[in-house]
Amino acid sequence: MTRSFADRHIGPDRGETDRILSALGIGSLDELAARAVPASILDDAATNGLDALPPALSEHEALAELSALAASNTVATTMIGLGYYDTLTPPVLVRSLLENPAWYTAYTPYQPEISQGRLEALLNFQTMVSDLTGMEVANASMLDEATAAAEAMTLLQRANRKSKSDRLLIDTDLFPQTRTVLYTRARPLGIEIVEADLADGELPEGEFFGVLTQLPGASGRIVDWKPVIDAAHERGALVAVGADLLALTLINAPGEQGADVCFGTTQRFGVPLGFGGPHAGYLAVHSAHARQLPGRLVGVSVDADGDTAYRLALQTREQHIRREKATSNICTAQVLLAIVAAMYASYHGAEGLRQIARRVHGHAQWLAAGLGDAVVHQSFFDTVLVRVPGGAEGIVAKAKGVGINLRLVDADHVGIACDEATTDAHVVAVLDCFGAEIPVGPEGALFHGKQRPHIENRTSEFLTAPAFTKYHTETAMLRYLRALSDKDIALDRSMIPLGSCTMKLNATAEMESITWPGFNRVHPYAPVEDAPGLRKLIADLEGWLCDVTGYDRVSLQPNAGSQGEYAGLLAIRRYHLDRGDTHRDTCLIPSSAHGTNAASAAMVGMRVEVVKTSANGDIDLDVLRAKIADHAERLACIMITYPSTHGVYEHEVAELCALVHEAGGQVYVDGANLNALVGLARPGKFGGDVSHLNLHKTFCIPHGGGGPGVGPVAVREHLARYLPGDPLERDSHAVSAAEFGSASILPITWAYIRMMGADGLRRATLTAIASANYIAGRLNEHFPVLYTGENGMVAHECILDLREITKRTGVTVDDVAKRLADYGFHAPTMSFPVAGTLMVEPTESENLEEIDAFCDAMIAIKGEIDQVAAGIWPIEDNPLRGAPHTAQCLVGEWDHPYSRETAVYPRGVRHARAKVWPSVRRIDGAFGDRNLVCSCPPLDAYAE
What are the N6-(pyridoxal phosphate)lysine sites (modified residues) in this protein (predicted)? Predict the structure, then answer.
């Protein structure tokens, strides 16, 4: 019998599924649906919205269809610029990193002892950014350049304690998409943006808390921003510079000129254009503002043996702690792409990057030499702005005819951007389009009859750490990448049972097309006719997601779940304002909600009111009614997660939605747990007005070690006009730099839905629910399951309550999490949504053998806890408190009350599973925060 893709994706086969259901006392998956999901929202299996989906294809049929879509796109020579450039990804990085499941299936490194590889790679990224910008601290990446600029704006405001101003000054030569996102984010926060041409160093009248400039500018011009920085500081303003990292290999770093913040993108460091993403943005500051940085920050600490170890630093800044007081809703990064960029820098080294930059600049110089007086700016790096009065459209059309896309700036100006992929032939072809003479070559070419300005004025060194000097051959890079990935646990090695995170199979057939040029070498601002295949794929996906969710319209622009949240809440806020309901500014949020919910609400200008949950974990409807009564006139919306953050189908959800609607509010349904709904219930039909969806959870885009992600926002028709628009249009309320966000990874979700079909998607959901209830049943007597629904069942995840165990024995969730590494497993989600608990989600991808192995490990750990409780092992020294155990710790004297064998081969591990050796012992987080180090040690540290 030929197996379908769904049979390959779903872990338990038919026999295993029957055994799981039998253990639950249930006869079929349909019976499970009726038992688990409230009848008030359950769709009929025959009319669940998925009937509109096309029939399932096999892997090879889907890839053939994708291939046809990719082939219909035009892979032109891209010379548009505006922060997006063609790049040459080293093949060793394509094969060993982008296409390697050891890297792309990893999760966010919240368990640092089994994440040292990607943490080291991210530390390299931070070092690369810090070195090139001349700043002391950089974070572990942002979502793109425009969102990095928006975060820079709010960072300047909160860091500038001396200024009372709410005005931000931006240079007119900022990238247009960056300007649009700044306006989107500034309006709800009451920030006034003032635009001015700052090239002459003069600031307009008035007070400003901050100034934003671009280096080089959108027009390509290079400006010495030192006078502007000095003038801004004299006026009490802080300065952020959006800087091109490749240009900074040649020109002075903004940090060395006094800039307070640097932001930008690392896309041109080996990360394909991808029709707009995913790309790793960056944000860097001086040490004085390190604790103001949003997002993730990798720091250096020590483990239990005193050895160097890496971890995420300053985690108290996370949204789950600060909630509506958070300064940002960013809770993800672009880890996989940041690592590509860091390894690109490592592979080329400082001198290699300089050579690439000089070649790029040389081609731009050559263009300028041929175009002579038509060139607008004399000082530039890669982009030449050309004045052709009335002739711009004709020039662009002529270039298009020979396969080159130039930028139509306006009727009189054309922009030409050179990049790593630009060749001499491209330069000659462009000059021919202008009817210009071809200069002899870039060397010694003249500009206005004299030697053009020399832009190379950087004197400081960069990328001197061993990470950037040792791996310039393919052999060395290949082994480095392998050595790093061996330090991590990803899905290619083990089940990752993370509640709320849905770590499911990322199938090879889904991933294969993302490295095809037809998808990843198209510029996001390329002519519409260049991307019919991409646009068809996007339209398909929008339609399918509407079918799955019951909504009317979807925007794929948000490039993370947090941005989807923001876009959805912004739509609600704008909807109320347009209706004249300016007073509707209160957002009700359950106390159990994801922390980003509250942060996103605050960012769109809403006031947060917390709704307490009842003893069974559900939203207390009596409390909700009281809250609605108290805030009826001001009620904007309620944010709920369904199934609840507690992993339960709340039976009164339809009534909850009706109560909010009756009071004039809107209902936002967080799509984090959609993996428990697909094919069973649709939020757009049971009361939701808007949801964001996590394509990196339910729809198989891999987590990539903490990004990329995609967080589309889906709405009912009355909110459709408020979805984010084209970022090149200033008032479009765009939330990211590209119209379709991280477009190059959308083929992953397209392939998943196309190959699963309606039946496969529904079976996947029910299998995930069955597996979660099976785990809950096996582990309940050892670790009580905290919350269940009215029928005693959980949804697709369950919460194991360790609080009484901790109270009785002193063994904590941290101890259990670290000990699981010795058993070869990644830990479940710790202390969310309830402190002192573990949240487990098996997904549909894990077969019964793996699920049982995890349960066996947890039961064995409970046996070890019992020995601590019995006094056989002291609480200060036992296998749980000593975990995880490295191979190195076995060498030499052993003075623990448990054996070496117990430490590293606990019961059931020796024969059942391949041994995982953590590379470090338990890490001292507090030490790392007290002694904050967020970049590679300097070269002299290695000499010492």
Answer: 697
Q: How many CA atoms lie within 13 A of 589 on its CB side?
A: 24
Distances (CA, A) of 209 to 232, 235, 242, 793, 796: 9, 9, 17, 53, 47
pLDDT in the model for residue 908: 58
Query: What CATH number does residue 275 fall under?
Result: 3.40.640.10
Mean pLDDT of the chain: 94
| Residue-level length of the chain | 944
Domain range for 793 is 760-928
Cβ neighbour number for residue 732 with a 10 Å cutoff: 19
Q: Which residues contact residue 470 at a Cβ distance below 8 angstroms, ignoring those fewer than 6 apart?
A: 476, 480
Q: Is residue 210 part of a domain?
A: yes
Extract the runs of DSSP E, i.e. beta strands, from 49-173.
Answer: 77-79, 137-138, 167-171
Residue 528 corresponds to which amino acid? V
Q: Domain check: are 776 and 716 in the same one?
A: no
pTM for this model (two decimals): 0.96
Q: Which two tokens stand for residue 365?
A: 């110089």
The per-type count for the chain, helices as H runs and strands as E runs, is 32, 25
Which run of H or E residues covers position 629? helix 621-631
Tokens of residue 618, six digits: 């559900």
Over residues 367-386, the mean pLDDT reads 96
Instruction: Give Cβ neighbours of residue 593 (< 8 Å, ≥ 6 apart).
Output: 639, 640, 641, 645, 670, 833
b/e sequence 634-667, b meaning 16+ C-beta within 10 Å: bbbbbbbbbbbbbbbbbbbbeebbebbeebbbbb
Whether residues 831 and 725 fall in one domain: no
Could you tell me where the DSSP H helices lie in 447-594?
474-485, 508-511, 517-520, 532-549, 561-578
Interstrand relation of 167-171 and 210-215 (parallel, antiparallel or unpaired): parallel
* Alpha-carbon dihedral 832, 835, 838, 840, rounded to 10 degrees: -30
3-state secondary structure of 727: coil
pLDDT at site 1 = 61
Note the pLDDT of residue 316: 47
> Of the candidates 592, 589, 596, which has an alpha carbon nearest to the alpha carbon of residue 613?
592
pLDDT digits (tens, 9 = 90+) for 118-136: 999 999 999 999 999 999 9
Q: How far apart are CA 381 and CA 248, in angstroms?
A: 10
- pLDDT tens profile 262-281: 999 999 999 999 999 999 99
Residue with tokens 């119209």: 739
For residue 940, name the pLDDT band (cuts at 50, 70, 90). Answer: low
Q: State pLDDT tens for residues 465-488.
A: 999 999 999 999 999 999 999 999
Examine residue 418 and state whether it is found in any structural domain, yes or no.
Answer: no
Q: Are residues 819 and 846 in the same domain?
A: yes
Q: Does residue 752 sit in the same domain as residue 771?
A: no
